[in-house]
Amino acid sequence: MAEDLKIAQGSKQEQYLELIPQIKGLLEGEPDLVANLANTAAALKEQFGWFWVGFYLVKEDELVLGPFQGPVACTRIRKGRGVCGSSWEQAKTLIVPDVEKFPGHIACSSLSKSEIVVPLFQNGAVVGVLDVDSSALDQFDQTDATYLEQIVGLLNLS
Asked: Which domains does the chain possess?
């Protein structure tokens, strides 16, 4: 298990390409989901310096806050509400360049300006989401979606 994170330089793609093997190293041999979600959130926050990085897990009819890095967050989100609940409902990654323009956005912090939410799948069902917020507008793009989807795919959700 790797315990030191090497912060990559270069383009966004180059940073992801250096980070992914490090995340694999963090997850390797560790069966505990909470530990793996925590280390994944920490690695992403350390690498990219985003405002907030964390996970929400489906529990009954809500998303419930899981491991995260950043300021205090909303604890429960209903299906279809905000960006996280919409990603869960639609079972797809959502990129929001300006959260103020997203209908029904849940403002856990007024400092959040843009967001990407990536669903976590187990046996074809959404079992959680990775939520990433930035304090800059238009922070996320298809490059982020592609690599964040790969990263959540590394998580053993069983």
From this structure: 12-153 (3.30.450.40)
